[in-house]
Every structure is written in C-alpha cells, then in structure tokens.
Amino acid sequence: MVLAMVASGLTLIFGIMDIVNFAHGDLLMLGAFVGATVLGMTGSYWLALIVAAIVIAILGALLQITTLRPLIGRDPLTTILATFGVSLVVQKYALWQWGPSVRQISVPVGGDFNLFYLQYPWYRIVTALLAGLIITALWLFLKYGKYGIWIRATTQDRVMAQAMGIPVPLVYTAVFAIGSAMAAASGVLFGPFAGVTQTMGFDFTLRAFIVVVVGGMGNLGGSILASIFVSLLESYAAILVSPAQAVIVSFVVLVLTMLFRPTGLFVPTPK
Amino acid sequence: MLVLDNVDAHYGKSHVLHGVSIEVRAGEVVGLLGRNGVGKTTTLKVIMGMARRTGGRITFEGRDLQGVPPHGLAALGIAWVPEERRIFRLLTVLENLRTGLDRRGMTPARREALLDKVYAYFPILKERRNQAGGTLSGGEQQMLAIARAMVLEPKIILLDEPTEGLMPRMVAQIQEIVHALHRDGVTILLVEQNVPLTLDAAGRVYIMEKGTVRHHASAAELRADQRVIHEYLGV
Of A106-115, A203-212, A246-255, B112-121, where does the model show the most confidence? Predict the structure, then answer.
C-alpha cells in the first residue's frame, strides 16, 4: 500500500506533466529524514509525518519552479536528465547532512497480533490503512474538487485548459508539490520497516516506475491496482525462492507488459 | 474591440499569415470566410497565443495582447471555441462547464444562474450533465464547446467552424444560437466555410486567401453581389 502511494504520486506527475521524475524516490528519502529529525526533536510520529509532507511539498514546488518549469516544451530527455541530476544532488546532500548510518524511526503503534501462526505487527495494518486513506483523499480531491477538475482538464488538454482560464503553470507546480508530499509521507510511513538511509530512494523510484508502467502511465487507478498486484506477486514469489530473487519477478512483469500491453495492464481500452 | 494590425505568423519556417488586418467592433458578428488552409484557424490561434506571431500587433479593448499569458485571455473576456471542439473527453458535461465556472470571484449563486442560463440555451446538456464529454454526439459536443465558452461570460467569442461535419438540423440549431448570442450582445468572430450561414449571421465579412485578407465587405453587399464569393471560394 505504501508502494501504491509512492506510485500514485509519480503517476500524477507523469500523467499531468509528462515528466519522468527520477528524483521521486529521493524526495521520499528526504521526507523520511525530515520525519526522523522531527521525531527526534518532538517525539511525535504524527507531527513528523505532517511536517515532512509539508516541507517536501514546498521543496517540490521550488524544485519545479527553478528546474522543471524552464524545461516545459523541451525534449522529454532533458527533464529525465534534470530530475536525475536532482536525484544525485539530494542523495549527496543527505549523505552530508545526516551521514551514512541508518536512522531508525520508531514504530508509533506498538504491539502484535496473531495471524494464524504468525506474529503480525499492528503498525503494518495502520500503515496500509493510512496509505489507503491518503490515496482515497487524493482521489476524492481529483474527482470533486475545483482544483481536481483543473488538474484533470490540464491532463487531457493543456491548451484548451489554458483557453478556459486555468493557470496551467500554477497547476503544474501544485501537482509537483502534491506528488512530492505523497512521496515524503510514504517515506515516513515506510521508515519504521527498514530504517532511513540516503540510498533508500532509488529502490522506490525503480519499483514505482515498474508499477506505473504496468498500471498504465498517468492512470491513477491502474497504478494502485498494479502496485497491489506487483507486491503480492513478489511476496508469493518470495515463498518459493529467496526474497532477493523475488524482485526479479517484478522485472519480468515489466518486460512482459512492455512487450504485450505497452499501454498498461489496467487500462480499460487501449486506443 | 479586437484589432489585428498587419499580423504575421510562422509555423516553424513556413510563413502562414501575411499581414492580416481585421477589426471586430463591440456587439458585431464578423465572418471570416475562405477555403481550407488559407489561415482562418491560424488567425484565431494567433489571437489565443497558440501560434507564434512574428509581426504586427493585436489589441483587445485597446490593450496589447503581447505578453498576456494564454490563461489570462479568458479573464480579459476572450473565449475560444476551437474547430476540433476540444471537449475534455473524460470529464463529465458538468465538469467541462466547471472548468470555466470555478474561477476567481464567482459566488455559488452566480454559478447557478450561469449554469441555468446555458442549460436554457442547450437543454440537452442538462440531460447529459453527468455523462462523459467524449460520449456525446458531434452536435452535442459542439453545443458543449459553445456552452463552455459562454460560462466564461466573454465579451467576444472566437467561433471556429461550428457547423463543420454536423447534420443540417444541428446546423440550423447552431445558427439559432449564434443569433441568440448576438441578441445578448456578445461579440463574435465567426470562422466558417458555410457561406449562406455566414452571410446570414454576420454583419461584415472578411475573405481570406493564401494567408492574407483579400476582401472585406458587408454581408448585405456580398448577398447582393455573389461574384466575389465565386471568385475566392468557388461556390
């Protein structure tokens, strides 16, 4: 579910702005560090979650204005290179600021419960629910909100949206900020599972891309389904082979999708 | 109200508009006739800032449009109904209208009133308000495109070939709507290939050929003397 959240941020940015954002995972990482820092200072996990999302949203907006806005209308390759550059800068900054060691975010909801024979931590359930809640909120916002309609109109026809008086450059910045905030929140939610390191972002970027491609680019619902699908597939594969090898399964799914259904698995009618 | 003064435009390296000068006065319906590919649509696109203007001046109510961002034109009172209609296909009819309704300074009461007004013009849109724009018929999409321009409460509507590809019944209905808008005091710059409709709806007509304006006359003159029409349009 956290993966679904990372992917929905990414697909939002891609679908609306045609920007392949290689820095997405690093914004997640940065969010996790900000979260860990706030947690260290205040001791409140929920405050850390919110502060991280807001800080990274502002950073995302600044990033979009300074780095990506001048590139609108250029070759997509330039935005890929630009976000890749940002990704490296953010990683090195994190290394400089917080050092190479792993930071722990302590679990805000303790306790386990018994799932058949397994001890299963409550926190995982809470995380899944919370991620689901945030995605639902995003969906409702896109479906019914004034700005949600602006965003969807811009996705479908940028030129016409402008003619209707929708401030498209502002919409772009806002979308990038929302996507960044979702990445940051995902980072804080995921933090307690594996700790926070400056290289955690890349893995997420990669997996989010798999999910976005498999789910159909720019298709929010598809990305969510695909992230559940890919995560389950990996988990089942991990029963048969080692967890490290299970990752291969996602790549196989990616390649098969690209070969046979390049528009995505969860798109109603490919045109 | 809207003045194009000696406007040039390029698509890449090809020079598509050569010194186009057109004036539209408040409350007028002005027709822009010409064969395919003579630059009628491009003229509208240049006004909307979507095609690159390389020379000349465009002013709206005395204000130079140079430097006004494309999304700023709606606020000035310029609405565009494009040739391809460009309905937001995945948005419902109501959401399509909301792209223009949810702008700054709108009160819920005014939004309702405007919505009622366009529904009165186009009852079919009210019926289909929760249907995706892409599922409408061609004529209904055209109505939606016009309705979407109307909710902006524009001073001028740039109407690009509104009857193209529509069946005769729909053409008559669109003609009715142009008349109704005119009665309401909306200024219209009407690009058309349909000569009878243009001569009926417009007060003055510009005829374009090869990227420039070749002839300018009142619709009454053109109705009386069809030779010019024959010469430039071959009908």
Answer: B112-121
**Which residues are CB-contacts of B223 (< 8 A; sequence separation ≥ 6)?**
B199
| pLDDT at residue A218 tops 70 | no
Alpha carbon distances (Å) from A230 to A198, A213, A214: 25, 11, 9
Q: What is the DSSP string of A119-137?
A: EEEHHHHHHHHHHHHHHHH
> What is the number of helices (H) and of strands (E) in chain B?
10, 10
Look up the ipTM and state it: 0.89
If you measure CA to CA, which chain A residue comes closest to B148? A164
B contacts of A150 (beta carbons < 8 Å): 99, 102
Q: How close is the nearest chain A Cα to the Cα of B102, in Å?
A: 6
The pLDDT of residue B31 is 95
SS3 B111: helix
> Nearest chain A Cα to B96, which residue?
A153
pLDDT tens, residue by residue, B60-74: 999 999 889 989 999
Whole-angstrom CA distances from A71 to A15, A26, A74, B187 are 17, 20, 5, 37
Pick from A144, A151, A160, A269 the residue to mutate for testing the B interface (most B CBs within 10 Å): A160
d(CA B117, CA B120): 5
Strand partners, B3: B23, B59
Contact B92, B130 (CB under 8 A): yes
Q: Which residues of B touch A153 (CB under 8 A)?
A: 88, 91, 95-96, 99
Q: What is the radius of gyration, based on Cα positions, of chain B?
A: 17
* Whole-model pTM over 0.90: no
What was the pLDDT predicted at A228?
80
CB pairs under 8 A between A and B: 64
Give me A91's structure tokens: 């990683």
Query: What's the rounded mean pLDDT across residues A244-255?
Result: 82
**pLDDT tens, position by position, A260-269:** 887 777 766 5
Q: Do A149 and B98 touch (CB under 8 A)?
A: yes
Which residues in A96-127 are b (16+ Cβ under 10 Å) and which e?
eebeeeebebebbeeeeeeeeeeeebebbeeb
